[in-house]
Amino acid sequence: MNAKGIILLLAVCLVTMFTACDESGISNEMAEQQGLLSVDYVEVQNAKGKKAENTGGFEEGVYSEYLAELNSELAAKGLNNVQVVMAETITYTAEGGVAAGQTLFADDRMKTLPAQWQAYDPIRSSTYGTLVGNDLTHTVYTPFAVANGSINSEPDIDASFETWNNLKKNSGLDIVKVPTPAGVFPSAILTLGGVDDPFVADISTIGFLPGSIFDAVLGPGSSASVLGVTFTFTWTAEPDVVALKEVWYNDDFTWSNDGTPGTIDIESVALHENGHALGFGHFGKIFGTNANGKLHVSPKAVMNASYLGPEREPLGTDKASFNNVYGSWPKN
To answer: Which residues lie across from 112 on neighbouring strands?
Structure first.
């Protein structure tokens, strides 16, 4: 079966799995709430189904039974030492259709996420079977790194990591690409029926997946609004320390890497999602006015919550976020 066939089969399996979960207790209200996807990240640590505690700025985590169910699936796969705690997304916001007055789309001030990587992490060292130091590693699952069936996105994803890597200045951080071994699928969430190993690298880019998978895992409506998502896993023994990051892109959108008008720029979205993979949150106020039907942003940043057009270089607040986390790495 070719990669496209595998993805379609995967989509059917996931939709079936989460539909079954919905029948066992996910309310319509909860599904509608998750479909809004207007929050910065989806928090699953509050097991009672209440809104999670605000962890910074104007942003608020929302409990998700969809993501909570993933932790049950992780345990079933034998991954008892990690837990998924948040999913950071970038959404598509089209200009036009702005209501009277002003419509606020986002007002975010979270430069850094509540869980972060730890240099010389002893749990990562024991898991990988080798001492981890200053480096963070990333891998791209090449069979799924094809956008819209024909665009090789891997060079653009690699370029986005190099852009963040080049900000390090006095930091000891190095972001190093490692290959995915043949026959291995590097996902903690998805299964292809072969060898699944989410510990191939610290950050695993799974690639471009059908929108139906986004609906199944993040909630109804995600296929039409979420361009990309980064899942954060922490150690169950150290819930503030990142264990893994997993990145997906939504193949239901029209992508390009050559600036074609009316398309989504791969490298720009990858730069945003890999910012989340490095521990950065959303930043910036995005609003629209009725007078001109346009969107406005203050300040403009790679880490704005919505995609506002190509942006392949970190701006002021992006650099500040990087410095907050990695300015003194590995002592952070």
So the answer is: 280
Give the contacts of 278 (CB within 8 A, at least 6 positions apart). Answer: 117, 136, 164, 175, 322, 325, 326
- Phi and psi at 169, nearest 5°, equal 50, -110
What residues does 280 pair with on adjacent strands?
112
110: confidence class by pLDDT, cuts 50, 70, 90: low
Residue 90, both tokens: 């970038």
Task: Look at residue 11 and tell me whether its pLDDT is greater than 80.
Answer: no
Looking at residue 313, its pLDDT comes to 97
Is the preceding peptide bond at 122 cis, omega within 30 degrees of 0? Answer: no
- Cα separation, 50 vs 61, in Å, equals 10
The Cα 30–Cα 28 span in angstroms is 5
pLDDT in tens, 164-191: 999 877 678 899 999 999 999 999 999 8
| pLDDT at residue 93, as a whole number | 65
Which residue, chain included where needed, has tokens 């106020």? 285
Paired residues of 86 in beta bridges? 232
Give 34's pLDDT tier (boundaries 50, 70, 90). Answer: very low
- Distance in angstroms between the alpha carbons of the first and the last residue of the chain: 46
Going from the C-alpha of 147 to that of each of 156, 159, 206, 208, the distances in angstroms are: 11, 16, 12, 6
Give the DSSP letter of residue 306.
Answer: E
Between CA 45 and CA 86 the distance in angstroms is: 9
38 band by pLDDT with thresholds 50, 70 and 90: very low
